[in-house]
Amino acid sequence: MGFFSRLKESLTKARGGMTQRVDELVRETRKIDDDFYDELEDILILSDCGVKATTRMIDELKERVHRDRITDAADARNVLKQIMVEEMDIPRPPLKWPMVMLIVGVNGVGKTTTIGKLALRFQAIGRTVMLAAGDTFRAAASEQLTVWAQRARVPIVKHEEGADPAAVVYDAIQSAKANGADLLLVDTAGRLHNKKNLMDELEKIRRVVERDFPEADMRCILVLDATTGQNGLAQARAFKEVCEVGGIILTKLDGTAKGGIALAIRQELAVPVWYIGVGEGIDDLQPFEARSFINALFGDEEQQGG
After folding, report:
1. 265 closest CA partner among 301, 286, 293
2. CA distances to 288, 294, 295, 298, 301 from 291, in Å
3. CB atoms within 10 A of CB 212
4. pLDDT of 194
5. CB burial class (10 A; 0-12, 13-18, 19+) of residue 241?
6. Cα–Cα distance measured from residue 162 to residue 48, given in angstroms and rounded to the nearest whole number
7. DSSP 15
8. CA nearest 220: which of 88, 105, 90, 94?
């Protein structure tokens, strides 16, 4: 099964929550009027698209429907899809090597698993990868990361529990430079309840990278669990305060009936979604492509072009 087919299958819950209701509205609509827009707005908000993103999309839909003299609700649905693609389609910046990815996110979102899958993905394209167990406060965090390091057959740098995360990163940088690693993936603590400590910790790590690995392209990548809905949006806001988020990895999209959270997060952070996770398999973490995602979300066939 190709990734688009798996993506489409994985978003079954989300289609039942949002696009099925959109399609019912389209079938029942005799006239595109204020009632149509109001109901569509309710559907999008209830699907966790967020008020900001929903308002933007509805306003844009009204403008295009009026401009193009659209009277068929099915045509309006297609216009809405195109608007969603445009909302989500922020190109991921080109990858530069060497690179340091600081992987951030609260505990439980799938950070460790995501790091392991990223290691395997970059290995598959010929990059040399190293892991740094920078979450030294959560019990067994480094052990879990070690399992993934063994699975991916990549080296890992770790210290004892409670050690200074910046010291772990310093040692990992020295090892990465000595071994010519292309990518250093750094696990970080997810203690968002104490933002001041987390901010200080991430700032210290950032300074170490800038001082000791200035040639590396450093990116802060936020992992969010799609099933947490608006709580995930709150996490996104909080992490944007503590670090310069350069990209999003959205996990567990196969487990949510509210796929609109991807649009809400995109609107809130104005940064690209880099990868999406749609299952537990190693190959179920894939680069995000806006048109494929929206087509799958609506249950439509993959299409090329506009």
Report:
1. 293
2. 9, 5, 6, 11, 11
3. 13
4. 74
5. exposed
6. 37
7. I
8. 105
- 103-158, pLDDT tens digit by residue? 999 988 989 999 999 999 999 999 999 999 999 988 789 999 999 999 999 999 99
pTM, rounded to two decimals: 0.90
At residue 305 the predicted structure's pLDDT band, cuts being 50, 70 and 90, is very low
Residue 60: other Cβ atoms inside 10 A: 16
**Of 171, 166, 138, the residue nearest 156 (C-alpha):** 171
What homologous superfamily does CATH list for 1-306? P-loop containing nucleotide triphosphate hydrolases (3.40.50.300)
- For the chain, the domains span 1-306
The answer to whether 293 and 278 are in contact (CB under 8 A) is no
Q: DSSP 3-state assignment of 75?
A: helix
11-39 pLDDT, tens digit per residue, is 776 656 688 899 999 999 999 999 999 99
Please check whether residue 94 is in contact with residue 192, taking contact to mean a CB–CB distance below 8 angstroms: no
Q: Are 277 and 290 in contact (CB under 8 A)?
A: no
Q: pLDDT digit string (tens) for 81-111?
A: 999 999 999 888 899 999 999 999 998 898 9
Phi, psi of 30 (to 5 degrees): -100, -25
Tokens of residue 151, six digits? 């699975």
